Amino acid sequence: MADILTVSALNERKAYVSNFPLEFCQSEVEEYFYRFFGDEVISVYLKTDFVHQFQGAVYVEFRSKDSMEKFVNSSDILIIGDYMLDKMTKLDYYEKNKERTKGNKERRIRKREEDNARKKEEKRQDIIRQMTHGAVLHLTNIRTCIHGNRNNYSDDIDETELGYKHIKEYFSDFGRVAHVDYNPGDTQAYMRFEEEGTALEVFKQIGADKGNVLFNNCLVDMDVLQGETEIDYWRQVVTILKQIQRKKRVNQLKKERRMQRTSVQNS
């Protein structure tokens, strides 16, 4: 505890003086303070960087706190050549530096958040450029409808295949179907058309704008993907397509390497 008080007492007697010429050395700075302030100055410490280059600022320890405050509060302007020196207490400098560090940290955090938001928006706009707008229908509550009517299909077709085919064939009467997203056992499916705006036209044409539609002898809830919901769906589609393309490239490279090895072995 005594050591902490001693350090605190020493800091109360120190001033921070900056804007010295960078070419100054220890002896030149000491000479300046000793010449003008004499015995009131006990020591001068130069601030340097990690390679010991002078940074133009010093800590000056005075004989008493009163002497230091008199120096700092004096209206006298300290000038060395073309340089006007800045002065404040060491404690004030620490507080100011703490605020500056906090401000820098907050700016870094804010910049990182802005960069992340910008990158996220760039990816979002990229998805929007790639998507076919207004082309996806979302069907819910379809499990019983898919598995409930097998009259028009042979017995060797399983229920999963029947569900996929039934959805695709039903909507093929209204537009060119690009893909049906359906996982076995799910109660929902996504019906994607090839042409932009087709989903909304089909939605109105079959009367689903009332909230549901008669599908395979039962009511199915249906809506058109729009806004962020539509973008989120296409984000998944684009991700899957990229994974497929990446897998194709890897397989192609493996095939080329096998062919090269075979060619070397046969030569």
UniProtKB/TrEMBL annotation:
Pfam families: RRM_1, RRM_3. The keyword Coiled coil does not apply. The keyword Thylakoid does not apply. GO terms for cellular component: nucleus; ribonucleoprotein complex. This is Lupus La protein. Keywords: RNA-binding. GO terms for biological process: RNA processing. One of its GO terms (molecular function) is RNA binding. Residues 102-124 are annotated as: Disordered. Residues 13-96 form the RRM domain. Residues 130-267 form the XRRM domain.
